[in-house]
């Protein structure tokens, strides 16, 4: 395969995934400029290592794993403290998405409340929630993206959902007071 064919194949596999890549990066990085930088860096990394991608492999999981790893590298580099709250203005910039299984609690919550609750989760939990509930990845795909065992995916997702429910209940109770 010549360089032009390789570039065309790479673009056909990755360009449709850019929205997914940005969404994951936005949730992990917590701001748009950093998310844009991470996606651009990830795209370049993916192109550089494209010859190692297996044709029969899952391009979405492969590319999102690169995005995820680039996010974590960027977060480590700037020593972001995950317990800091997101500035109020940034929460409104997150694209609307439909939350998943916590239906009884989430259905009563506003989109903003859900966004704040997701933002408040530790990064490991936030990551699996975004990949499963917002991006619709299977447990196996999340395992591939995050580089963790399937059981860990299920455990983190369960604990993340429990924490989300708790956060949403607390916010609802505080709003009723």
Structure description:
- With 177 residues, this protein is mainly alpha-helical.
- It has 2 domains: 1-80, RNA polymerase sigma factor, region 2, helix turn helix motif (Rna Polymerase Sigma Factor, Chain: A, Orthogonal Bundle); 88-177, Winged helix-like DNA-binding domain superfamily/Winged helix DNA-binding domain (Arc Repressor Mutant, subunit A).
- The chain has 10 helices and no strands.
- The protein has helices at residues 3-14, 18-29, 32-48, 59-77, 88-91, 103-106, 111-120, 123-134, 139-146, 150-176.
- α4 packs across α9 (139-146) and α9 (139-146) crosses α10 (150-176).
- Residues 80-99 have low confidence and may be disordered.
Q: What distinguishing features does this structure have?
A:
mainly alpha; Rna Polymerase Sigma Factor, Chain: A; Arc Repressor Mutant, subunit A
Layout of strands and helices, then pairs:
Elements: H1 3-14, H2 18-29, H3 32-48, H4 59-77, H5 88-91, H6 103-106, H7 111-120, H8 123-134, H9 139-146, H10 150-176
Helix pairs in contact: 2-3, 2-4, 2-8, 3-4, 4-9, 7-10, 8-10, 9-10
Mean pLDDT over the full residue set: 82
Number of domains: 2
Shape: elongated
Give the CATH topology of the largest domain: Arc Repressor Mutant, subunit A
| Rg from alpha-carbon coordinates | 17 Å
Helix content: over 70%
Number of helices: 10
| Class inferred from helices and paired strands | mainly alpha
Biggest sheet descriptor: none
Name the CATH class of the largest domain: Mainly Alpha
Q: pLDDT below 50 for ≥5 consecutive residues: which ranges?
A: 80-99
């Amino acid at each position: 395969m010549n360089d032009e064919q390789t570039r065309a194949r790479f673009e056909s596999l990755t360009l449709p995934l850019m929205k997914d890549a940005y969404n994951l990066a936005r949730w992990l990085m917590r701001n748009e400029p950093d998310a844009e930088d991470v996606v651009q860096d990830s795209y370049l990394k993916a192109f550089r290592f494209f010859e190692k991608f297996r044709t029969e492999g899952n391009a979405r999981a492969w590319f999102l794993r690169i995005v995820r790893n680039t996010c974590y590298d960027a977060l480590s580099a700037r020593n972001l403290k995950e317990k800091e709250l997101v500035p109020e203005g940034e929460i409104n910039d997150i694209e609307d998405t439909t939350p998943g299984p916590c239906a009884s609690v989430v259905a009563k919550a506003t989109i903003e409340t859900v966004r704040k609750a997701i933002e408040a989760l530790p990064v490991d939990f936030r990551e699996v929630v975004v990949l499963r509930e917002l991006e619709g990845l299977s447990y196996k795909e999340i395992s591939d993206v995050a580089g963790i065992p399937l059981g860990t995916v299920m455990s983190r997702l369960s604990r993340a959902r429990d924490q989300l429910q708790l956060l949403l209940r607390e916010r609802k109770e505080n709003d009723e007071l």
